[in-house]
């Protein structure tokens, strides 16, 4: 595992024994080394809860002109409702 991830064997031993947790960057590195999504690594290490990533993250290249009017209106409504809930 250490060779595949690119870290010293001692570091993996610490992780396995529970003496130290991998950093967030190391969790992502491990996930990628095994062909898994980085978020899965963060959940596995306890940095995130499964319900925190229940909705898939969608990245959109470009700017607002690439977003449909419906998507833009939905986002504005979501933000307005969230703000109103805090007041």
Helix content: 55-70%
User: How many structural domains can be distinguished in the coordinates?
Assistant: 1
- Compute the CA-based radius of gyration: 19 Å
- End-to-end separation in angstroms reads 50 Å
**Count of discrete alpha- or pi-helical segments spanning 4 or more residues:** 5
Largest sheet features:
none
Give me a quick take on this structure.
It comes from Microbacterium schleiferi. The protein has helices spanning 2-5, 9-17, 24-33, 38-44, 69-86.
Structural notes for this entry:
- Helix 3 packs across helix 4 (38-44).
- The protein has helices at residues 2-5, 9-17, 24-33, 38-44, 69-86.
- The model has no long low-confidence stretch (mean pLDDT 84).
- The chain has one domain (2-86).
- The chain is built from five helices and no strands.
Q: Would you spell out the secondary-structure blueprint of this structure?
A:
Blueprint: H1 2-5, H2 9-17, H3 24-33, H4 38-44, H5 69-86
Defining key terms:
5 helices, 55% helix, 87 residues, elongated, Lambda_DNA-bd_dom_sf, mainly alpha, 0% strand
């Amino acid at each position: 595992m250490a060779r595949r991830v690119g870290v010293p064997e001692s570091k993996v031993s610490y992780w396995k024994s529970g003496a130290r947790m991998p950093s967030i960057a190391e969790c992502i590195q491990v996930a990628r080394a095994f062909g898994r999504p980085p978020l899965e690594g963060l959940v596995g290490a306890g940095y995130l809860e499964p319900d925190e990533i229940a909705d898939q993250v969608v990245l959109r290249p470009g700017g607002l002109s690439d977003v449909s009017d419906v998507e833009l209106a939905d986002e504005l409504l979501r933000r307005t409702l969230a703000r109103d809930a805090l007041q």
